[in-house]
Amino acid sequence: MKSRKITAWNRWVGCLLGLGLLWPIAGQAQHQLILGPQSHQTLESGTHAGFQTFYQQRGRTECTEKHETTVVFNAGLRPVKSVPLSISLALPVSYIWDAAQNFHDTIPDNPERSKTGVDDAILALNYRFDFESLQQKWGATGNYALVTAGLELPTGNLDHAPYDGPLDYIFGTQLGLEWRMLSANLYGFYRLTTDSDDGAVSDNVLAGVRFGYTPWENLGSQRSISIHVGFGYEQNLDDDFIEGFDSPEAGWSMMVHPMIVAGLDANLRLTLMGSIPVAKSFEHDNMVDRFRVNLGLLYLFGS
User: Fold this and answer.
1) Checking CA distances to 10, which of 25, 31, 67, 144 falls within 20 to 30 Å?
2) What domains are there in the chain, each with its CATH number?
Protein backbone atom coordinates (compact mmCIF):
# COMPACT_ATOMS: atom_id res chain seq x y z
CA MET A 1 0.00 0.00 0.00
CA LYS A 2 1.39 3.39 -0.97
CA SER A 3 1.84 6.11 1.60
CA ARG A 4 -0.69 8.93 1.43
CA LYS A 5 1.94 11.46 0.29
CA ILE A 6 3.15 9.29 -2.57
CA THR A 7 -0.44 8.61 -3.57
CA ALA A 8 -1.12 12.34 -3.49
CA TRP A 9 1.93 12.88 -5.72
CA ASN A 10 0.46 10.46 -8.26
CA ARG A 11 -2.71 12.48 -8.10
CA TRP A 12 -0.78 15.55 -9.29
CA VAL A 13 0.81 13.49 -12.04
CA GLY A 14 -2.57 12.05 -13.04
CA CYS A 15 -3.50 15.21 -15.01
CA LEU A 16 -0.05 15.99 -16.31
CA LEU A 17 -0.72 16.13 -20.03
CA GLY A 18 -3.39 18.76 -20.47
CA LEU A 19 -1.59 21.99 -21.69
CA GLY A 20 -2.25 23.81 -24.77
CA LEU A 21 -3.84 26.89 -26.32
CA LEU A 22 -2.48 30.57 -26.13
CA TRP A 23 -2.82 32.28 -29.52
CA PRO A 24 -2.45 35.51 -31.53
CA ILE A 25 1.03 34.68 -32.73
CA ALA A 26 2.51 35.35 -29.26
CA GLY A 27 -0.66 34.16 -27.64
CA GLN A 28 -0.67 30.88 -29.51
CA ALA A 29 2.22 29.49 -27.54
CA GLN A 30 0.83 30.37 -24.16
CA HIS A 31 -2.51 28.62 -24.44
CA GLN A 32 -0.88 25.47 -25.59
CA LEU A 33 1.39 25.91 -22.65
CA ILE A 34 -1.19 26.77 -20.02
CA LEU A 35 -3.94 24.37 -21.10
CA GLY A 36 -2.08 21.49 -22.66
CA PRO A 37 -0.35 18.22 -21.78
CA GLN A 38 1.13 19.38 -18.49
CA SER A 39 -1.71 21.63 -17.36
CA HIS A 40 -3.22 19.05 -15.04
CA GLN A 41 -0.37 19.69 -12.69
CA THR A 42 -1.34 23.31 -12.15
CA LEU A 43 -5.10 23.03 -12.70
CA GLU A 44 -5.65 20.01 -10.44
CA SER A 45 -3.22 20.64 -7.62
CA GLY A 46 -5.20 23.13 -5.54
CA THR A 47 -2.91 25.49 -3.65
CA HIS A 48 0.36 25.84 -5.54
CA ALA A 49 2.92 28.24 -6.98
CA GLY A 50 5.49 27.81 -9.72
CA PHE A 51 6.61 28.66 -13.21
CA GLN A 52 7.07 27.08 -16.62
CA THR A 53 9.49 28.12 -19.34
CA PHE A 54 8.81 27.38 -23.00
CA TYR A 55 10.81 27.66 -26.18
CA GLN A 56 8.95 27.40 -29.48
CA GLN A 57 10.09 27.54 -33.11
CA ARG A 58 7.69 28.09 -36.00
CA GLY A 59 7.91 28.45 -39.78
CA ARG A 60 8.52 26.12 -42.73
CA THR A 61 11.57 27.88 -44.18
CA GLU A 62 14.29 30.28 -43.08
CA CYS A 63 12.21 33.07 -44.64
CA THR A 64 9.36 32.50 -42.20
CA GLU A 65 11.26 31.25 -39.16
CA LYS A 66 10.01 32.60 -35.83
CA HIS A 67 11.26 31.94 -32.30
CA GLU A 68 9.44 32.50 -29.03
CA THR A 69 10.50 32.12 -25.41
CA THR A 70 7.76 32.31 -22.78
CA VAL A 71 7.81 32.18 -18.99
CA VAL A 72 4.43 31.37 -17.41
CA PHE A 73 4.03 32.14 -13.71
CA ASN A 74 1.37 29.90 -12.12
CA ALA A 75 -0.44 30.19 -8.82
CA GLY A 76 -3.48 28.47 -7.36
CA LEU A 77 -5.56 28.60 -4.21
CA ARG A 78 -8.08 26.18 -2.73
CA PRO A 79 -9.92 28.47 -0.28
CA VAL A 80 -11.86 25.76 1.56
CA LYS A 81 -9.99 22.51 2.07
CA SER A 82 -13.17 20.43 2.28
CA VAL A 83 -14.53 21.84 -1.01
CA PRO A 84 -12.70 20.63 -4.19
CA LEU A 85 -12.90 24.08 -5.83
CA SER A 86 -9.72 25.97 -6.65
CA ILE A 87 -8.84 29.29 -8.26
CA SER A 88 -5.86 29.40 -10.63
CA LEU A 89 -3.95 32.25 -12.26
CA ALA A 90 -1.45 32.07 -15.12
CA LEU A 91 0.62 35.08 -16.18
CA PRO A 92 2.82 34.65 -19.30
CA VAL A 93 5.72 36.86 -20.35
CA SER A 94 7.17 36.37 -23.85
CA TYR A 95 10.13 37.32 -26.02
CA ILE A 96 9.49 36.83 -29.75
CA TRP A 97 12.02 37.30 -32.51
CA ASP A 98 12.29 36.82 -36.24
CA ALA A 99 15.25 34.64 -37.19
CA ALA A 100 14.97 35.53 -40.90
CA GLN A 101 16.24 39.08 -40.51
CA ASN A 102 18.20 39.21 -43.76
CA PHE A 103 15.12 38.21 -45.71
CA HIS A 104 12.89 40.80 -44.05
CA ASP A 105 15.45 43.56 -44.47
CA THR A 106 14.51 43.59 -48.16
CA ILE A 107 10.80 44.15 -47.46
CA PRO A 108 9.48 47.75 -47.23
CA ASP A 109 7.62 48.69 -44.06
CA ASN A 110 9.31 45.85 -42.20
CA PRO A 111 7.56 45.21 -38.84
CA GLU A 112 9.54 44.85 -35.65
CA ARG A 113 11.81 41.82 -35.75
CA SER A 114 11.58 41.23 -32.02
CA LYS A 115 9.37 42.23 -29.12
CA THR A 116 9.07 41.54 -25.42
CA GLY A 117 5.97 41.92 -23.32
CA VAL A 118 3.33 40.51 -21.03
CA ASP A 119 0.66 38.24 -22.52
CA ASP A 120 -2.94 38.15 -21.35
CA ALA A 121 -3.49 36.57 -17.94
CA ILE A 122 -5.80 33.58 -17.47
CA LEU A 123 -7.99 33.38 -14.37
CA ALA A 124 -9.92 30.13 -13.90
CA LEU A 125 -12.13 28.13 -11.53
CA ASN A 126 -11.48 24.38 -11.32
CA TYR A 127 -13.80 21.81 -9.72
CA ARG A 128 -12.76 18.23 -9.08
CA PHE A 129 -15.04 15.17 -8.84
CA ASP A 130 -13.39 12.19 -7.12
CA PHE A 131 -14.24 8.63 -8.20
CA GLU A 132 -14.20 7.37 -4.64
CA SER A 133 -15.08 3.75 -5.46
CA LEU A 134 -12.13 3.48 -7.87
CA GLN A 135 -9.85 5.31 -5.44
CA GLN A 136 -10.68 2.78 -2.72
CA LYS A 137 -10.54 -0.24 -5.03
CA TRP A 138 -7.24 0.69 -6.71
CA GLY A 139 -5.69 2.49 -3.71
CA ALA A 140 -4.89 5.64 -5.71
CA THR A 141 -6.29 9.18 -5.64
CA GLY A 142 -5.62 9.84 -9.35
CA ASN A 143 -9.12 8.70 -10.36
CA TYR A 144 -11.23 11.80 -10.87
CA ALA A 145 -12.84 14.23 -13.29
CA LEU A 146 -12.06 17.95 -13.45
CA VAL A 147 -13.96 20.82 -15.06
CA THR A 148 -12.47 24.25 -15.72
CA ALA A 149 -13.99 27.60 -16.69
CA GLY A 150 -11.92 30.72 -17.05
CA LEU A 151 -11.37 34.16 -18.49
CA GLU A 152 -8.48 35.41 -20.60
CA LEU A 153 -8.12 38.95 -19.32
CA PRO A 154 -6.78 41.71 -21.64
CA THR A 155 -3.95 42.59 -19.24
CA GLY A 156 -1.11 42.07 -21.72
CA ASN A 157 0.67 44.47 -24.05
CA LEU A 158 1.98 42.22 -26.84
CA ASP A 159 -1.07 42.22 -29.12
CA HIS A 160 -2.98 45.24 -27.85
CA ALA A 161 -2.70 48.12 -25.42
CA PRO A 162 -2.93 46.98 -21.78
CA TYR A 163 -6.54 46.48 -20.63
CA ASP A 164 -7.78 47.43 -24.11
CA GLY A 165 -8.12 44.04 -25.80
CA PRO A 166 -10.94 41.48 -26.08
CA LEU A 167 -12.17 39.37 -23.18
CA ASP A 168 -11.97 35.69 -24.14
CA TYR A 169 -13.40 32.58 -22.46
CA ILE A 170 -11.90 29.17 -21.73
CA PHE A 171 -13.72 25.91 -20.97
CA GLY A 172 -12.14 22.54 -20.29
CA THR A 173 -12.47 19.10 -18.80
CA GLN A 174 -10.05 16.37 -17.73
CA LEU A 175 -10.46 12.72 -16.76
CA GLY A 176 -7.78 10.95 -14.72
CA LEU A 177 -7.26 7.23 -14.07
CA GLU A 178 -4.55 5.66 -11.92
CA TRP A 179 -3.76 2.05 -11.08
CA ARG A 180 -0.59 1.09 -9.23
CA MET A 181 2.34 2.52 -11.23
CA LEU A 182 0.25 3.35 -14.30
CA SER A 183 -1.83 6.45 -15.02
CA ALA A 184 -3.76 7.97 -17.89
CA ASN A 185 -5.40 11.29 -18.58
CA LEU A 186 -7.90 12.54 -21.17
CA TYR A 187 -8.29 16.28 -21.65
CA GLY A 188 -10.12 18.76 -23.84
CA PHE A 189 -10.25 22.56 -23.93
CA TYR A 190 -12.05 25.19 -25.96
CA ARG A 191 -11.07 28.87 -26.13
CA LEU A 192 -13.88 31.14 -27.25
CA THR A 193 -12.59 34.43 -28.64
CA THR A 194 -14.44 37.71 -28.99
CA ASP A 195 -13.96 40.48 -31.53
CA SER A 196 -10.71 42.42 -31.43
CA ASP A 197 -9.95 45.78 -33.01
CA ASP A 198 -7.95 44.26 -35.87
CA GLY A 199 -10.61 41.63 -36.62
CA ALA A 200 -8.23 38.73 -35.95
CA VAL A 201 -10.65 36.26 -34.39
CA SER A 202 -9.92 32.55 -34.13
CA ASP A 203 -11.32 30.10 -31.57
CA ASN A 204 -8.99 27.35 -30.39
CA VAL A 205 -9.49 23.64 -29.67
CA LEU A 206 -7.19 21.28 -27.80
CA ALA A 207 -7.74 17.59 -27.05
CA GLY A 208 -5.46 14.73 -26.16
CA VAL A 209 -4.53 11.70 -24.10
CA ARG A 210 -1.55 11.00 -21.84
CA PHE A 211 -0.13 7.74 -20.50
CA GLY A 212 2.22 7.64 -17.53
CA TYR A 213 4.46 5.12 -15.77
CA THR A 214 6.27 5.58 -12.45
CA PRO A 215 9.28 3.21 -12.43
CA TRP A 216 10.78 4.54 -9.19
CA GLU A 217 9.55 6.18 -5.99
CA ASN A 218 11.06 6.38 -2.52
CA LEU A 219 8.50 6.34 0.27
CA GLY A 220 10.91 7.76 2.83
CA SER A 221 12.22 10.77 0.90
CA GLN A 222 9.02 11.20 -1.15
CA ARG A 223 11.06 11.30 -4.36
CA SER A 224 9.74 9.92 -7.64
CA ILE A 225 10.47 9.62 -11.33
CA SER A 226 7.60 9.34 -13.82
CA ILE A 227 7.75 8.90 -17.59
CA HIS A 228 4.87 10.09 -19.78
CA VAL A 229 3.91 10.20 -23.42
CA GLY A 230 0.96 12.12 -24.78
CA PHE A 231 -0.81 12.57 -28.09
CA GLY A 232 -2.65 15.81 -28.77
CA TYR A 233 -4.73 17.57 -31.40
CA GLU A 234 -4.53 21.38 -31.61
CA GLN A 235 -6.61 23.55 -33.94
CA ASN A 236 -7.08 27.24 -34.65
CA LEU A 237 -10.57 27.45 -36.09
CA ASP A 238 -11.20 29.34 -39.32
CA ASP A 239 -13.90 31.85 -38.40
CA ASP A 240 -14.91 32.55 -42.00
CA PHE A 241 -18.52 33.01 -40.93
CA ILE A 242 -17.62 36.48 -39.62
CA GLU A 243 -18.38 38.63 -42.66
CA GLY A 244 -16.31 36.38 -44.89
CA PHE A 245 -13.12 36.87 -42.84
CA ASP A 246 -10.65 33.96 -42.87
CA SER A 247 -8.45 33.92 -39.81
CA PRO A 248 -4.73 34.11 -40.69
CA GLU A 249 -4.08 31.77 -37.77
CA ALA A 250 -6.30 28.95 -39.06
CA GLY A 251 -4.83 25.45 -39.07
CA TRP A 252 -4.34 22.25 -37.10
CA SER A 253 -1.59 19.95 -35.88
CA MET A 254 -1.18 16.51 -34.32
CA MET A 255 1.48 16.50 -31.60
CA VAL A 256 3.48 13.94 -29.63
CA HIS A 257 4.43 15.02 -26.10
CA PRO A 258 7.22 13.04 -24.35
CA MET A 259 7.63 14.10 -20.72
CA ILE A 260 9.55 13.32 -17.54
CA VAL A 261 8.34 14.36 -14.07
CA ALA A 262 10.63 14.28 -11.03
CA GLY A 263 9.28 14.51 -7.48
CA LEU A 264 12.14 16.23 -5.64
CA ASP A 265 10.38 15.89 -2.28
CA ALA A 266 6.83 15.77 -0.95
CA ASN A 267 6.05 19.25 -2.30
CA LEU A 268 8.38 20.09 -5.19
CA ARG A 269 7.84 18.86 -8.79
CA LEU A 270 10.14 19.31 -11.80
CA THR A 271 8.86 18.63 -15.34
CA LEU A 272 10.58 18.45 -18.71
CA MET A 273 8.44 18.08 -21.83
CA GLY A 274 8.85 18.25 -25.58
CA SER A 275 6.17 18.74 -28.26
CA ILE A 276 6.80 17.40 -31.75
CA PRO A 277 4.31 17.79 -34.64
CA VAL A 278 3.68 14.59 -36.60
CA ALA A 279 1.03 16.08 -38.92
CA LYS A 280 -0.03 19.69 -39.54
CA SER A 281 -1.76 22.09 -41.90
CA PHE A 282 -1.83 25.89 -41.53
CA GLU A 283 -2.90 28.80 -43.72
CA HIS A 284 0.34 30.69 -43.06
CA ASP A 285 3.87 29.31 -42.81
CA ASN A 286 4.78 31.28 -39.69
CA MET A 287 2.07 29.46 -37.70
CA VAL A 288 3.60 26.00 -38.27
CA ASP A 289 5.26 24.58 -35.12
CA ARG A 290 8.61 22.89 -35.65
CA PHE A 291 8.94 21.94 -32.00
CA ARG A 292 8.32 23.16 -28.44
CA VAL A 293 10.29 22.50 -25.25
CA ASN A 294 9.00 23.06 -21.72
CA LEU A 295 10.72 23.10 -18.31
CA GLY A 296 8.60 23.65 -15.22
CA LEU A 297 8.96 23.84 -11.45
CA LEU A 298 5.94 23.59 -9.14
CA TYR A 299 5.55 23.78 -5.36
CA LEU A 300 2.45 22.14 -3.85
CA PHE A 301 1.37 23.54 -0.48
CA GLY A 302 0.06 21.09 2.10
CA SER A 303 0.65 17.95 0.00
Assistant:
1) 31
2) 4-105+113-300 (2.40.160.40)
